[in-house]
Design goal:
The chain is mainly alpha-helical. It has five helices and four strands. Helix 2 runs parallel beside helix 3.
């Protein structure tokens, strides 16, 4: 199965102003990485959002997201869809204990390696 996201119309250049929540920030950071032209105002200054932003802008092969559980899940899917790049996501000892097998199996069933 080949799944592709594409724009049906150009993204307006107006910035998206959010409430400053970590949840909104992380989701929009992911969309910003997928689609150029998205500008975000009033982003969360949380450690999780900082980890997400650093990971998305990193060219490293190993990315440490520390304690950021949402970032781990979003980034696992994000990096799985990038062609020609292999990334190892790591985190704190506690993060390494958290379950992610269901997501990994779902991505593998869609063709991720």
């Amino acid at each position: 199965m080949d799944i592709r996201l594409h724009l049906s119309q150009p993204i307006k250049k107006n910035p998206i102003t959010i409430t400053g929540s970590k949840s909104e920030t992380n989701r929009l950071l992911l969309l910003q990485a997928l689609f150029s032209g998205i500008s975000i105002e009033n982003m969360s200054q949380s450690d999780d959002s900082d980890a997400m932003q650093r990971a998305l802008s990193s060219g490293a092969d190993v990315i440490d997201i520390h304690h950021a559980g949402t970032a781990m899940r979003f980034l696992t899917s994000y990096f799985a869809q990038l062609e020609g790049r292999t990334v190892l996501l790591t985190g704190s000892l506690r993060m390494k204990e958290r379950p992610i097998g269901i997501l990994v199996e779902a991505l593998r069933s869609l063709g991720a390696c």
